[in-house]
Amino acid sequence: MCIEQIRFGQQPNKLAVMNPYSIGRPERHAPIRMAADSLRSSVRPHVQQAVSERFTEFLADSKATANQIHFVGLIVDHLTRNGSMEPGRLYDPPFTDTAPQGPDQVVDLDKLTRLVGIIEEFRDVAG
């Protein structure tokens, strides 16, 4: 759309300039989207392994309760699906389904600080 607007002497709108899919015809985008989806699918198992290993280390430091293991599993699932996460999400569903008052209901302050540090490590790598 953006190229067509320029070609016909029109001023492209901001949305057309910012949208990478606005160039060319939509049918040309399908192979690019398929390749991106394929790449995401092939990378996801590696992300899951890295996330799982890091949080397994966290849980191995002490005897973890069933609630702590479940809570950390929710974090692992979120990071695996999304690649990163803001620590503030720990106070939103699905995390509050396990800990309605927040993560400090499941772990003590020291562990919560370490947990947030691990989440931030993945955010910084993904960011």
Task: Describe it.
By secondary structure, the protein is an all-alpha fold. It has one domain. The protein has six helices and no strands. The protein has helices spanning 2-7, 14-18, 29-60, 66-82, 95-98, 109-126. The radius of gyration is 21 Å and the shape is elongated. The mean pLDDT is 76.
Distance between the termini: 30 Å
Estimate what percentage of residues fall within beta strands: under 5%
Percent of residues in helical segments?
Answer: 55-70%
Number of domains: 1
DSSP E strands, number: 0
Summed over residues and divided by their number, the pLDDT gives a mean of: 76
Low-confidence stretches: none
| Largest sheet, strands/sense/barrel | none
Number of helices: 6
Radius of gyration: 21 Å
N-to-C SSE series?
HHHHHH
Structural class: mainly alpha
The geometry reads as elongated
Tag the structure with descriptive keywords.
mainly alpha; elongated
Can I get a quick summary?
The protein is an all-alpha fold and 127 residues long. It has one domain. The protein is 65% helix and 0% strand.
Question: Which SSEs are present, and which pair or pack?
Answer:
Blueprint: H1 2-7, H2 14-18, H3 29-60, H4 66-82, H5 95-98, H6 109-126
